[in-house]
Amino acid sequence: MNLADRLEAARGRQAVEDLALPTARTSRPVAPPPAPPTDALARLKDRVGKALFERMGSRMNDPSLGEDALRSIVLGELDAVVEEENVPLSTEERQRLTADLADDVLGFGPLQRLLDDDSVSEVMVNGPDHIYVEQNGKLVRTGAFFTSEEHLRRVIDRIVSRVGRRIDESSPLVDARLADGSRVNAIIPPLAFSGSTLTIRKFSKDPFTVTDLIGFGTLSPEMAELLHACVDARLNIIVSGGTGTGKTTLLNVLSSFIPEGERIVTIEDAVELQLQQDHVVRLESRPPNIEGKGAITIRDLVRNSLRMRPDRIVVGECRGGESLDMLQAMNTGHDGSLSTVHANSPRDAIARLETLVLMAGMDLPLRAIREQIASAVDVVVQLTRLRDGTRRVTHVTEVQGMEGETVTLQDAFLFDYSAGVDASGKFLGRPVPTGVRPRFTERFEELGITLSPRVFGASEAAAARGWQ
Question: Which domains does the chain have, with CATH numbers?
């Protein structure tokens, strides 16, 4: 074979590889459609999309148009544009083209179907070509993709603009939320080297109840009864756990135990809590404007909330100097407050609170900080995401006080790992009582709150943990 023949053969192989490129984006072992029709449909979609945006013009951003009215106009214009193209399409191809373009114009493009899927709990976009989801506790790569970096940026801009936030080179990362309360984090180049990155943590349309968490195995009935009594008795509770362990979900459930008739003030970076009570004041922090001014921090809101006559203060997450103000509130009559903190164990949660208080910039001795924590916090509830993808409460721990320089803790419930795993790798264990009765139960008796004898079943705990 001469040189010209070898070059021609190489070009042929390269052409075959180029045609196969679109199928490399899919992670499912499905036979790909022939490349030329797919490319033709993609080009048609691009032409129709541009024509649709031209026909819609300023109506796309008309504030007087409701969502239903805008959808009706878009679908009507879309049908007209497809007819003008005069391209023979099967019914299935036409429906898919219309659905994809409607998602691009009215929704969040290729993410829309993932967000509509109730089995998907989190969507992770690592650049335009790599979209992953968390499904049933496991990470899975999807076959969805954005056509370009610009396409992905348009979707990110649409999300953040709806909640009054912005993302650009001067402010390349943002926390926001969707209309249903789902949490959104976006970060764009130059900080995101591999392309714009988007993470959406979905929340259930119907907030999870304590019955749901018991059904999932996150809580045991005995643990749920104890936590219900703790909220009734106005104990201060910290929910501790790593990223994605379900702290906000559990905080929602604990908040549902707050009796009607109490004034609740919630303070969050981006509003996520879905409290069911009537008397709720929801406060949200604000980032700085384009000039770097006008920021309202969680700490500012915590301080302000003390002047709003709250019966309960619920802080979505303590992550800075607001921890000091939160502890002071707990120590000055605002009992029954709830918050979350990032930590891997109850002991780590106490250490993290110490660090966060130091971030307030106050030159306080460590012993004084620990005394504040020991006096303010009554219960630490530890959440852990296990290897099988399930979220479990692994500790319910009482903060008893100080011994010397140390904050003393006592576990009331612990997760029993000794039961092992089943054939599918799922943990068989459950939370069991340690048999030690917390000191705060004396407060239950003073308030007339009764617990079932099974909550602190010492004999059951001993049997489960081999302490006989």
Answer: 33-87 (no CATH), 108-204 (3.30.450.370), 210-465 (3.40.50.300)
